[in-house]
Amino acid sequence: MLSSTFLRRAAAPVVRTGRSSFATGPASGGSISDDLLSKLGSLSTQALVDGLWVMGWPPSQIDGARPLHPSHRCAGRAVTLNFVPARPDIAADKPPGPESPEYEAFERCGPNDVLVMSSVGPWESVGGDIKFLRLRQLKIGGLVTDGSVRDTDEIINYGFPCFSYSTTARQGPAAMQPWECNGVISVSGVTVRPGDAIVGDQDGVVVVPARVAESVYNIAHGREVIEGIVKEELIKNPGPPGRFYPFMSGKIKVDSPLGKLLATRGITPENSNQFEGSADW
Predict the structure, then answer these.
(1) Which residues are substrate-binding (predicted)?
(2) Of 30, 178, 184, 238, which alpha carbon lies 20 to 30 A from 253's?
(3) Per-residue model confidence (pLDDT) at position 5
(4) Contacts with 197 (C-beta within 8 Å, 6 or more apart), sequence order
């Protein structure tokens, strides 16, 4: 039989002192150099998605963000802003005026940054003309949201790349309030951490986690080189693409038609990570 002393000790509440910093974890997942950011921006979003997929990472394309203008393309480090549904106490507690989280986020942005705004709904407005004038002044690298934007013509005239779900005439404050700058956010179900690489083109927007950005670039760049060789070969010798394509990075066999074609261009397992047994991720 258990002693009464043991029972009293077992029933005693656990007293916690202080708060573990690991309870929330760090917001940023790493840093990306200007050189690597430029190299990521030189690739297509398709190649970057493929690189992350090969590595086994979750979906990385923000499906709810489309370019506001056909010329829009961006590559920058994420500065994040999270909106929450409107509630009277939220509106009362949010820092007012220039201290608002959205303006804090704005001031963190520059030419190599992309402001990523998590909306509470696709048709809710994250901002428009007067607010985004400041982003133009800061020469921001881009704006991405799964919500909508207002004053479309003015935003296009501002010249910075903008990717949104759509456009709207609605006002945002009635539906949501900006609540946190540079935290971890979810945009169309895709996680974005401050400092992640955000790359956008006509096919959409991709989030490249900072921690694996170098590996993603190496895989994606290797794929684009090979796809260029395959296309060149098919133009020269027309026929079904199936002889060479599609292919899996890290799985190309040396004695396959694609492997033999690449050998004629000097691409082998000794200098490429795209072959079976040469994957370095």
Answers:
(1) 150
(2) 238
(3) 41
(4) 32, 36, 37, 40, 75, 76, 77, 78, 207, 208, 210, 213
Predicted confidence (pLDDT) per residue in 108-139, tens digit: 999 999 999 999 999 999 999 999 999 999 99
Three-class SS of the chain: CCCHHHHHHHHCCCCCCCCCHHHCCCCCCCCCCHHHHHHHHCCCHHHHHHHHHHCCCCCCEECCCEECCCCCCEEEEEEEEEEEECCHHHHHHCCCHHHCHHHHHHHCCCCCEEEEEECCCCCCECCCHHHHHHHHHCCCCEEEECCEECCHHHHHHHCCCEEECEECCCCCCCCEEEEEECCCEEECCEEECCCCEEEEECCEEEEECHHHHHHHHHHHHHHHHHHHHHHHHHHHCCCCHHHCCCCCCCCECCCCHHHHHHHHCCCCCCCCCCECCCCCC
Residue reference for tokens 């590559």: 75
* 166-167 vs 148-149, strand pairing mode: parallel
Binding residues for substrate: 150
What pTM was estimated for this model as a whole? Answer: 0.89
Residue 1 pLDDT more than 70? no
Please count the CA atoms within 13 angstroms of the CA of 87 that sit on its side-chain side: 8
Q: Can you say which residues are annotated as belonging to the binding site for Mg(2+)?
A: 151
Q: Give Cβ neighbours of residue 232 (< 8 Å, ≥ 6 apart).
A: none
**Residue with tokens 């690597």, as numbered in its chain:** 36
For the annotated binding site, the residues are 150-151
Look up residue 278 and give its two tokens.
């040469």
How many Å apart are CA 219 and CA 272, to the nearest integer? 9
Pull the structure tokens for residue 137.
């002044």
